[in-house]
């Protein structure tokens, strides 16, 4: 069950990251369609706890730097290997597409670090975005690194829903894609999850953890270049991790 | 009214910043004394929204880098002047005490940037911490920069509670402290709000906003050195802002 008031805190944080300016009670109430009284209550809760303040008198609320301090402490404790974040910047530059690092989280692959393409039409993604692990190139590059017992559990629980033209619809189809991918060293997706999106992903194990690096973009741009892109990705990873 | 489930999200974020490691549902439920079912619901809400994930199978939840990305976007939009944050690092080094920048927020002064003393016995503070604006050195350094009409409104609404031996208990006492401080250029607190804490604060206006810089520590260390510390603080600020 989703806890509405918890979700609302996250929505407020996203709201301010987007707006990048203070907002008044009336503006926030209008933006979300929340009643004035409950908007007042959530703003008071966040202010009392030191997470919001009023930078200018009567000009509205804005998050304090407390979020940043806590988020930095959290990120420093569980860093993604720096070599890997550096690599995806280079890959984004080299391919012109969006590149990300993901890790498994239950039935999902979750994006930990994202460098977006600068192309006007691009795959827009953010850290924390999740995709079904069984249905995507990122996910399959992660599954390929797991013990088969864990893969079995995941594929038994997975929700075989049709997301796009390329979605694998059965456990057997996923296993087939996994075997093919393992054989060639990379995993492909063409409208598997997001319509008109194509990508290639490769597995990478570092610092005792498993990750996937994915390059993805609109199918019209990447569809014909999958092999080429995969080779570029795999060569970059090989240069990074001593064989 | 405090929204409990909103407050719980903030407590979870603080919990992970402190723990710096993944925590299981059972651990979180035990740490907060939350029922297992409601712990499950809040963890699910945060996971579904991309703010938590499970970095290792069955090893528990940890915040994703989404918090950091949003907090960085928020901080970049409303920066504290860099010259000022640099200055408080120097001041903390030079005085050996905790130094912070605060700004007004309604009836409070809120700490925006804090450099803690390295002394084992020190004033421990974090961004987002709030103190009553009328009762503290930080607050009075802020009030001193406001139009008297705004000061009047604040002092009418203020809650004249006894926090410590030095708390000003009436509007007249606050105004007297304000006048004295304005005359000498700095504001003092000795057990005004926190027992056994002393500090000096100075006003500073930058980038169209008003701030206060405060140096504070245990009274046994700073009590006899207030004038000296205030002079050090004011000289540093004078070097920063062209007169």
UniProtKB/TrEMBL annotation, chains A, B:
InterPro entries: GAF-like_dom_sf, HTH_MetabolicPath_Reg, Tscrpt_reg_IclR_C, Tscrpt_reg_IclR_N, WH-like_DNA-bd_sf, WH_DNA-bd_sf. Keywords: DNA-binding, Transcription, Transcription regulation. Residues 3-61 form the HTH iclR-type domain. The keyword Cell membrane does not apply. Residues 66-243 form the IclR-ED domain. The keyword Transcription applies. GO terms for molecular function: DNA binding; DNA-binding transcription factor activity. Coiled coil: none annotated. SUPFAM superfamilies: GAF domain-like, Winged helix' DNA-binding domain. One of its GO terms (biological process) is negative regulation of DNA-templated transcription. This is IclR family transcriptional regulator. It comes from Pikeienuella piscinae.
